[in-house]
Specification:
The structure is a homotetramer. Chain A is built from 8 helices and 18 strands. Chain A has about 375 residues and is of the alpha+beta class. Chains A, B, C, D: Its EC number is 4.2.3.5.
Chain lengths: ~375, ~375, ~375, ~375
C-alpha cells in the first residue's frame, strides 16, 4: 500500500534493483482457476527482453521468470502469486565511477536527496529493469482478460521525428520496434544507426489499445478508468505525457467535432478513446504515451557530484538509445493490469449483470 | 477507498450530484494547528464559481462552503474535516426531456450501463459541479503547503486555436479566463462570443505550476509523483491529456537536448518538469492538461435513447461553452492535494530531514 | 484512506465532533438499485439514540439523518452516498471547566499530545457520538445484505456481573438494554439504579451474530474475515476485547473438543464462530466484544492538567453509566459493513459462483 | 492492497504455500539508512522455526531467509525489500490421501468453496507456515522501532489450563515455550508429553507488550491503534480472541476501578493497556491473544469429502500439538509492524514534534 503497489482488487507489488540479486513481484487478487504457466509469462517477457536486437541495450539477461506460489497444477488458486527473476548479468564495475556523480536527467539526484543512501549500480531501483516484473504481472492480467474477451495490444506510433501509421498487428510482432507498418522498419533501423553514431538518444510515442472492453469499467470520480490508466502509464520510466482518445487534439476541437455520435448500430467515431465520464463505453480504449530520450548517453554533459562540485559526465555502460523501443510490452502490461483491476472492482460492486451484457451500440 | 477517495495520508472523499441536495467532502489527514476558515475556502471557490462571467454557465450558485468539523477555534485539530455546499439553483425541469436519451460524448451512456439507475438531472454525479468540492479541499491543501513554502498556481495556456504565452501571475487573476497575458483577453472574449453564435464549444489547455517544492516528494515505482499527478489531473472532468515538463515534445527530442544539465548553481533547464525518476527535483513542477470541448451544445446531434432508438439531441440548459475556462482552480486543487499527500508520505517514511533542507543546486 | 475510512470496496468515511455543527459520513461503493430511505436509516439510529431511557445519557438528540446524495427516486445509484446529522443539543458550557484537564481513562490526554490542538467539548472527535454515523452507514449495509439473505443482529450478553443467556430476538427489541431474556430486564434495571446511586459506571459484553452468510467471505492472509471484524469492532469506543466463536475459551480447549465436526447434514457445532482459515464457513458468524465502563463518572479521581499539575476531576455532564447499553446497534453496524465489504470483494475476485451457492453442509 | 498486504505506510505483502517452492514477502516503506542483515532476520526466524523442540512439528525447515533487494551495503535504501525463504522439507506424500477430504476445523472446507481450486498439500496458503514471512518482516520493523526506543516482546501466559505469571524476560528466551517463569517449564513439558500420548492438541494464550511507545500513535476513528493491532493479531492463524489491557475483565469492572488515574509522575495503573481513545498513551501497550488448539490431530473425527459423503479423518503428518508454542514471535512481529506503520503515519501527519517528546507523566 506504500509506493510499490498498483491496483486495488487485482494488485501488483514489486521489488528489485538493476544490479541486485533478483527482481520480484506479488500479484494479489487474481481470480482462481486461470491457467498460468512460466512459459506463458516468458513469452511476454521475451518481447521486452534486453539484448534482443542491436537497437537496445546489450545487457544479456535471460529474464527467466519463476512462479513461486499461487499456481497449483497449472491453475491459479486465488491466493497471492509470487514471481521471481534472478539477475544474472550484472556488471557492477561499469558503474562504480559514477557512484558519487549525478547523471543529468537521471534519478540519481532525486534518490540521493530523498533517501540519503542509494544503490547507485545501474540506477538501482530507478532502473527500467524494474519494468520486467510489470510485464510478468501484466501477462497474468492479459490471460484473465482474454477469458472475458478483452485484448490489449500496443505499437510504436512515433520514433523521434518518424510518425508511423498503423497498418497491421501482425507487423508489430515481426520487428524489434513494435512497428505496425512493415514498410517503415528499414527507415527506423537507419535512424537508430545514425543515432548511435551521433552518440545520442531519442524519444518515442507508443499507442496502446484494448479491444473487447465491456461498458461499465471505471469508478468515478477519482478512480475513473482514464485516471487510473494515466496513473499506471505515467508510472513507467521515461513517460512524460499521456493521451486518451483525441488527447491534446481536443484542445483545438469544437464540441460538434469531438463528440462521438451514437446510432442504433453504435458510435460513429471514437474521439473519446473508449471512455466517457471515466467509464468505459464499450468502444476500444485508446491511449498514447510519450517517452523521453534516455538520459544515459556518451555525449559529455555538465553535472555535479554529491559534494556539489561540477563534473563532466559521460554515461558508459549498456543502455537503450531509445527506451521507447522496449516500452510497448510495458505499456500493454500497465493497461492490462488497470483494466483487470477495474473489471474486478466493477464486478464486486455491480455483480456480473452489466459487464459483458450486449451493448446497445458497439464500437 | 472506493472510487471517490483521492490521496493516502492526506485524502479527500467526495459526494454530491449536480441537482442533488448538496455536495460534500471529507478531508482526512490534514495536519493539526493549521488556520482554516470558511472565508479562505470561499476565495478559492469563487474563482471557480459558475455565473461569474458571460463566458461560463449562467447557473447562479452561491457555492457557500461550510466547515462542519475538524476545525476548532479557527485551527485544524488533525481530525477529519467535513465540508458542505448546498445546491440552491437546481432547475431540474431543464433536464427532464433528456431523461431517456444519451447525450453524445456525455457520461449518460456509461452511467446508465454501469449502474442501471442514474440521476439524470444535470448529469448527476458525472457533472463538473462535483469539482467544487475538489477546489474546497484543495484550498486546505494549499494552505498547508504554503506553510512549507510551496505555491501552486495555474493559467490557461491555450483556448482552442489561441496559444497564450505566460506573461504574469497578476494577469491571471484579473480576467475570467485565467489568461496570463492581459493583452490577449480581448481576443479570447471575441472568440467566445463567436463560438456562442456558432452554438458550439471548444477545448482548452491549462498549465499548472508548483513552486517551492523540495527535493524528495514521490514514491517509486508506482506512486511516483508524476503518476499520481496524472491520476489526479486526469480525474478532472473533460481532461483527455496530461504532460509533465516537455511532455509530448520529448518524443522528438534527443537525449542531449532533453536532459537538464546540473551546475553547482542548479539545473540549467527544466525539460523534466521538476520530476526525475518519479521524485521531485526541487525545480518547479510543471504540468499541462488538455480539456475537451463540452459535449453540451445546442447544435443537434445524433444519438439513441435507452431503448436503442435513434434520437436527435439538442442540449439546452445552462452550460459552459468551454469547460477549460473554469478548470484552472480545479487543476491547481488536484496538484495541491497530490503534493501535500506526498509531502506527508515522505515525511512519514523519511522524517523531516530531506524535505526542506538546502538543495545542492536549485531550480 | 487515512484513519477515518473503513472498508475497501464498500467503504465508510466519517467526520464530526460531539459538539460540532454536524456529524457526517460518505458511504462509497454501495451497489446500485437498492431501496434506501431516510426513514429506514432512522429506525436504526433510533435504536442507538441517546435519551431513550433513563439508563443512558440524558442528552436529547433527535439524530435526524439526511441523505444528501447517491439515492435517486428512492434507490441507490451506485455513486457515493452523503449522510448528515446536525447536532442540536450541544451544551458546551457543561464542559468548559475541564478544558485544561485530562479526565482519567479518557482520550483527552492522548488527543492533546498527538494533535496539540483539540476540541475539548464533550470529547470532540473521541466522543462515542461519532458512532451515530456508523449506525447510519450500517443500516445501508444491512439493507444490501438482506438482499443476499444475510441478517446481522446483536444483544447484550453481560452487564457487569450479570450474565444473560440468549432467549429470543424478540426480547432484544423490547427493552432498553437489548437484553435477549425478558425475565432479566428488571434485574438489569435494579443494577443500573444502584450504580447511579454509587456514582459509578460499569462494563458490558455484547454478542453479535450474522445469519445467512454464504461460504467464502474473507481474504487471507491479512484481510481474513475475522481480522477485519476484529478491526471494525475494536474501533468502537470503549471496546477492549474481541472474541470469535469460542474465543478465549479455546485456550483451555483440546483439539478434539474445539473442532467442529462435519456431516453431510452440516457442521455439528460452531466453536469456530463461522470462520475457518479467515473465511466464512456458511455457519453463523458469532462475535463478542467487551466494553469498558465509561470513564465519565462523578466519583472524584486524580489527574493532571495540561501543565502537569495535579487536579481532582469530577466529570459532570450527561453521560452513559454503561456505554455497553447503546453499543448493540453499533456492533451490528460494524459487522454489517465488514460483511458487505467482503461480499463485494469476494464477488469481485471470484464472480457470483460460490457466494450463495448451495452449501455442502449447512450452518 | 488485496488481502495479502498489511500496513499503509510501512506495509508487508506476502506469498507462499506450505509445500510450494518458496515463501516470500515485500516490505515496503521501510525508512532508509537502517542497518539490516540476513543474520539479524535469521535470529528472529530461528525463534519461530519448526523442529526446534520435541513439542513442535518435526518438520525440519532451515527457514533461511534471503534479502533480495532494498538493502545496499548493509543499510536499507528506502525502496521495497524483497525477502525469500525456500521450502526445503516438503513431503507432499504425507497429505495426498486427504486431498479430497475436509479436515474438521481446518481451512480446507472454506478454501475449497471460496476458490474452487486449492493447493491441498499441508494446508497450502492456509498453513501457519505463512507466518514465517511475518516474522522476517517483523524483524525489520523491530529494528526500526529500536532506533526510536521501542521494544516489542511477548511470552506464553497460559498453556491450556496452566496459567503462567510473568517472572522475567530472560526466562522467555531460555525455553521452547517462551515461558516467562523458569520454574514452570517442567510442568509445561509434562503437560505436552501427556497431550501427545492423548493424541490431542491444546490452546494457549500469548501476551505481547511494547515498551517505549511514545504518546500519539493511532489514527481515530477507524484506524485506532488498538483496532489495527486487533486486525494484525487476529490475522494470525488460530487466533480466536484479542484483549487490550484489562480486556474482557473490563466487563465486570466499575469505572472507578478501570480508570487509570494520572499524577504528575505518570499513570497509576494500566487497565487501558497503553491505549486511550485509540491512541497510545505512552504507557506500555499490552495485548493478549487466545489461540485455539490445532485441528490436526490423530484422534479420528467425523467429516465429509468434496462430494459431500461422510468420511472419518485422521490427520497424520507433522503438526504442532499446540500452535501457541511458536506463536510468540509471530505476535511480536504483528505488533511491531503495526506500531511502525503507525509511527510513520503519525510522523507523516504531525511531523516529529509529539513523537518522542517528553511525556507529561510516564508509565
Amino acid at each position: 500500500m506504500s509506493g510499490n503497489t498498483f491496483g486495488k482488487l487485482f494488485s501488483v507489488t514489486t521489488f528489485g534493483e538493476s544490479h541486485g540479486v533478483a527482481l520480484g513481484a506479488i500479484v494479489d487478487g487474481c481470480p482462481p482457476g486461470i491457467e498460468i504457466s512460466e512459459q506463458a509469462l516468458q513469452v511476454e517477457l521475451d518481447r521486452r527482453r534486453p539484448g534482443s536486437s542491436r537497437h537496445t541495450t546489450q545487457r544479456k539477461e535471460a529474464d527467466e521468470v519463476k512462479i513461486l506460489s499461487g499456481v497449483f497444477e497449472g491453475k491459479t488458486t486465488g491466493t497471492s502469486i509470487g514471481l521471481l527473476i534472478e539477475n544474472t548479468d550484472q556488471r557492477s564495475k561499469d558503474y562504480s565511477k559514477i557512484k558519487d556523480q549525478f547523471r543529468p536527467a537521471h534519478a540519481d539526484y532525486t534518490y540521493h536527496h530523498k533517501y540519503g543512501h542509494r544503490d547507485y549500480r545501474g540506477g538501482g531501483r530507478s532502473s527500467a529493469r524494474e519494468t520486467a516484473m510489470r510485464v510478468a504481472a501484466g501477462a497474468i492480467a492479459k490471460k484473465v482478460l482474454a477469458g472475458h474477451g478483452i485484448q490489449v495490444r500496443g505499437y510504436m506510433s512515433q520514433l523521434g521525428p518518424i510518425e508511423i501509421d498503423f497498418k497491421s498487428w501482425k507487423s508489430v510482432e515481426q520487428n524489434a520496434f513494435f512497428c505496425p507498418d512493415p514498410d517503415r522498419v528499414a527507415e527506423l533501423e537507419a535512424y537508430m544507426d545514425q543515432l548511435r553514431r551521433d552518440q545520442d538518444s531519442i524519444g518515442a510515442e507508443i499507442t496502446v489499445i484494448a479491444d473487447g472492453v465491456p461498458v461499465g469499467l471505471g469508478e468515478p470520480v477519482f478512480d475513473r478508468l482514464d485516471a487510473e490508466l494515466a496513473h499506471g502509464l505515467m508510472s513507467i520510466n521515461a513517460v512524460k505525457g499521456i493521451e486518451i482518445g483525441a488527447g491534446f487534439k481536443s484542445v483545438t476541437q469544437r464540441g460538434s467535432e469531438h463528440r462521438d455520435e451514437l446510432t442504433p448500430e453504435g458510435f460513429l467515431s471514437n474521439q473519446a478513446g473508449g471512455i466517457l465520464g471515466g467509464i468505459s463505453s464499450g468502444q476500444p480504449i485508446v491511449a498514447r504515451i510519450a517517452l523521453k530520450p534516455t538520459s544515459s548517453i556518451t555525449t559529455p554533459g555538465r553535472s555535479i557530484d554529491v559534494h556539489g562540485a561540477p563534473v563532466e559526465v559521460i554515461t558508459k555502460g549498456r543502455h537503450d538509445p531509445c527506451v521507447g523501443i522496449r516500452a510497448t510490452p510495458i505499456a500493454e502490461a500497465m493497461m492490462a493490469i488497470t483494466l483487470l483491476d477495474h473489471l474486478l472492482r466493477h464486478r464486486g460492486q455491480n455483480g456480473d449483470v452489466s459487464v459483458g451484457t450486449p451493448k446497445l451500440g458497439q464500437r
